[in-house]
Amino acid sequence: MRTSRHDRLGDLFSYVFLAVTFLFFAWPLLWLLSLALRTRKEVFLGVSRFIPKAPTLDNFTTILSSEKFAGYLWNALILSTSSAIGCLVVALPAAYAFSRFPFRGKGPWMMILLAFQMISPLVIMVPLYRYMAAIGLTDSHFGAAMVYIALAVPMVTWILKGFIDGIPRSLDEAALIDGCSHFAVFWRIILPLSTPGIASAFIITVIAGWSQFLVPFLLISKEALMPIGVGIFQYAGTQNDSSIQLLAAACLVSVVPAIVAFLSLQRLILGAMTAGAVKG
Fold first, then answer.
1. pLDDT tens digits for 22-40?
2. What is the spatial distance between Cα 20 and Cα 189, in angstroms, rounded to a whole number?
3. In b/e form, how buried is each residue of 32-54, taking b as 16+ CB within 10 angstroms?
4. Cβ-contact 56, 39 below 8 angstroms
5. I want to staple 163 with a disulfide (CB 3.0 to 4.6 A). Which of 128, 177, 253, 275 is the partner?
6. d(CA 216, CA 79)
């Protein structure tokens, strides 16, 4: 009976903790929603009222019908998806090599790869801009996507290595005995069996690219090439207080797709991120 009572108290504290955590992170989004549903007149009256007196969807209609914001969204989609594809092209062979091939210093190289993931773009922004400007890759989606790929490859390599570690080596050995090359094993066995992990890594990279701000802000100055995050920032700098409700709607439009994608696919994502975590 004591154990049952303790379990119920533990469950209660867990639910309370989760509820408080949810409110802590959701509260700014709820305020954004409150602002986005207001009219310009109600914004001028102040922000003390949480629930708008006369809610309206006109701000979302204005944002979604604007060619400028549609361009921002399209640019964000191009950068996030192209960088995710490029990241998989680089990370998949690297993950296969780290998982299957024995070579000197494999452990230290994996730690070095993880250490690169910990470097903030803020630390390298000045040399990064000078380098990209010197080779003519500023103000281009290609240049920004290359930096996205470089930032995401370490994390994706770790994720995919853990997933490939879970594929029995006996399948590789049987294929090699039948005359397959290592590339054939990778193409015909590893890739098909790694599909869930590849899909998860792709989704994670797309979400990370979608929410990227510093890299495009640093490398892209042409408004026609800006993704949604930088576009909203530039738009905010050129507007007055009468556009707060439009900025709130634009922020929600930019944030909600990533949140919905993560919540919808969280089991797939977490499964890939924890793959191989309990293996020796």
1. 888 778 888 888 888 887 7
2. 45
3. bbbbbbbbeebbeeeeeeeebee
4. yes
5. 275
6. 9
Contact present, 185 and 167 (Cβ < 8 Å): no
CA distances from 194 to 8, 110, 170, 173, 186 (A): 39, 20, 16, 17, 10
Distance CA 154, CA 114 (A): 6
Q: Output the DSSP codes for 103-171.
A: -TTHHHHHHHHHHHHT--HHHHHHHHHHHHHHTT-SSSHHHHHHHHHHHHHHHHHHHHHHHHHTS-HHH
Q: Are 138 and 220 in contact (CB under 8 A)?
A: yes
Count of CB atoms situated within 10 Å of the CB of 212: 23
Res. 280 pLDDT band, cuts 50 70 90 = very low
* pTM for the predicted model, two decimal places: 0.80
- The Cα 138–Cα 157 span in angstroms is 27
How far the first Cα of the chain sits from its last, in Å, is 38
CB atoms within 10 A of CB 88: 20
Q: What are the angstrom distances between the C-alpha of 5 and each of 1, 16, 18?
A: 6, 17, 20
Is it the case that residue 271 has pLDDT exceeding 70?
no
